[in-house]
Amino acid sequence: MKDKKQYRGNDRRTQQKNDRSKRQRKEQVEVAESEENNFAFGHHASVEALQAGRGNKLFLQEDAHGDKIDLLKKLAKEQAVPVKWVPKQKLDTLSDGGVHQGVVLGITPYEYLTLEDLLTKVSSEEAPFLLILDSLEDPHNFGSILRTADASGVSGVIIPKHRSVGITPVVTKASTGAVEYVPIARVTNLSQSIKQLKEAGYWIFGTDMDGTDYRQWKVAGPIALIIGNEGKGMSAGLKKEVDEMLTIPMTGHVQSLNAGVAAGLLMYEVFRKRSES
């Protein structure tokens, strides 16, 4: 006869197995949700996705015409992407009510890089500049940041896999196609990724109310900048990994900036200083 300890041990193992199964099912659902509705909408985002070879079906509003529509049809033909003319209501549904400009493009799922892939990709640069987004939730902020990142020469972006917005149709639209040009790595653990960046020779900077005036920021060498969540800012765990905190002086009554605005200001500070050196 089995004793009580053996029964308790079996119960613990069963519970651990059930917990693992629940976590796996949750992760599968999160991945499925993040990859559903794979569409780009609007002219610029659709053009960039077609040129990147990610289009699989082009939906055009049935009464659409003009040079922009002709360009889309030409690109679709070059990429062997079928074109379908549909009513505006169909495009409204596909874009979830977004401003689609009479254009919606079905695309293949976005292929994120691993951190190792990203580091290899930027290794040829003398002083790579990476952006780390700590649990950013607003797709418009994310898209705006990607647009500025492309314009200001950011080498790549790192985002967490969970509790963070990924590459969605709204992000693609807001980035005006920049999503096709800025390398994006998605990682399971930001703290571990930051440790890996440090081992690779990167200096890690964060943003906080108390820190070094960003105008005194030393931007030489490989650097990575953390932009915190829109409401909570940087997580406490990541603050422990930062080499130096930066602050943006403000004199108004509101003592914080929109995440996209703050990120844009800091990205262009790096661009400005490196252009002058």
From TrEMBL:
The keyword Nucleotide-binding does not apply. Gene3D superfamilies: 3.30.1330.30, 3.40.1280.10. Keywords: Methyltransferase, Transferase. Residues 1-29 have a biased composition (Basic and acidic residues). GO terms for molecular function: RNA binding; RNA methyltransferase activity. This is 23S rRNA (Guanosine(2251)-2'-O)-methyltransferase RlmB. GO terms for biological process: methylation; RNA processing. CDD domains: SpoU-like_RlmB. GO terms for cellular component: cytosol. Residues 1-36 are annotated as: Disordered. Residues 39-113 form the RNA 2-O ribose methyltransferase substrate binding domain. Belongs to the class IV-like SAM-binding methyltransferase superfamily. RNA methyltransferase TrmH family. Pfam families: SpoU_methylase, SpoU_sub_bind. It comes from Enterococcus dongliensis.
